[in-house]
Write a structure and sequence with these properties.
Layout: E1 3-12, E2 15-25, E3 30-34, H1 41-48, E4 56-61, E5 64-65, H2 70-74, E6 77-80, H3 92-102, H4 110-118, H5 131-143, E7 149-153, H6 161-176, E8 180-184, H7 188-194, E9 197-202, E10 205-211, H8 212-216, E11 218-225, E12 245-251, H9 254-262, E13 266-273, H10 276-284
Parallel strand pairs: 3-8, 3-9, 6-7, 7-8
Antiparallel strand pairs: 1-2, 1-4, 4-5, 9-10, 11-12, 11-13
Length: 287
């Protein structure tokens, strides 16, 4: 594993912001960190970055302790915070170059190539940029460096829909290049689109860790019966009594489901991917 948290805990006085979180992230893996405000997402990211000292437990990045060896650990990660604070006396290119030199790198033509994809002029002063353009410059600064881990906190804030799609494509490219990506988000469909796994936090605890490949095989089936409902479902298991409507979760081969539906007296039917929303609501309701 590239990034490993083991019993990671952070207290602020009597308030426990993170409670014994254990999590590992491998190279070439994209992991989404989910939870409402106050669930511990940002605290976890700051502990991984060595910005905070854990009360208990450890976090290591590429074998380096994120607190006691924070300089070595941070050489191997780039970070986009939820709230930007940029050096606005610079242009986008100057900022990327300055940050690159801090880690001993001099960015090359990849800056212009990515700037074109993000639809920004890297030679425009930051003082003349909108908040959305500044967010693109920040993305440029975290995606260009050759590091094994990218950490992003609510990265699509202020981005328009087209740029959100481009950002997600850049995460796919980072994954294919062997980078690990950890990002927090409130936008579930973005997480579904690119993540290999999702970790759900609730009141500082890691309450659920889910493999997205498993989720993509799950389907929600709904419909209306025109005749008596069946007693047995497509998986051969007994069904609860249904009052004229079909509502079930199905995991299994699609042909078996379609064959079962074909035999039922349905006046209409809908089959759709399960999605993260149902799992998220299990732990956070509609929030």
């Amino acid at each position: 594993m590239l990034l490993v948290a083991d019993g990671l805990t952070k207290d602020y006085g009597r308030n426990r912001a993170l409670d014994a979180v254990s999590l590992g992230i491998a190279p070439g893996e994209v992991v989404g960190l989910l939870g409402p405000n106050g669930s511990g997402k940002t605290t976890a990211l700051r502990l991984f970055l060595g910005f905070l000292r854990p009360t208990r437990g450890t976090a290591t990045l590429a074998g380096f302790d994120c607190w006691t060896q924070s300089v070595e650990a941070r050489k191997r990660v780039t970070y986009l915070p939820g709230e930007l604070r940029l050096y606005e006396n610079m242009t986008g290119r100057q900022l990327v170059t300055f940050l690159g030199k801090l880690r001993g790198e001099v960015p090359g033509p990849e800056v212009d190539a990515l700037a074109k994809r993000l639809d920004i002029d890297p030679d425009t002063p930051l003082t003349r940029m909108s908040s959305g353009m500044k967010r693109k410059v920040a993305l440029l600064a975290v995606l260009v460096p050759n590091v094994p881990l990218v950490i992003l906190d609510e990265p699509t804030n202020t981005l328009d829909p087209t740029m959100r799609d481009e950002f997600l494509e850049q995460l796919r490219l980072a994954k294919h290049a062997g980078k690990a990506v950890l990002f927090s988000s409130h936008v579930l469909h973005e997480v579904e689109a690119v993540c290999d796994r999702v970790a759900i936090l609730r009141k500082g605890k890691l309450v659920h860790l889910h493999d997205m490949a498993d989720l993509k095989e799950a389907r929600r089936v709904s419909g209306t019966f025109a005749g008596p409902p069946p007693a047995v479902g497509p998986d051969g298991q007994p069904l609860p009594p249904m009052n004229g409507t079909l509502d079930l979760e199905y995991r299994g081969p699609l042909p078996a489901l379609l064959e079962w539906l074909h035999r039922q007296p349905l006046s209409d039917v809908r089959v759709e991917p399960m999605g993260l929303r149902a799992i998220y609501r299990t732990y956070h309701g509609n929030g």
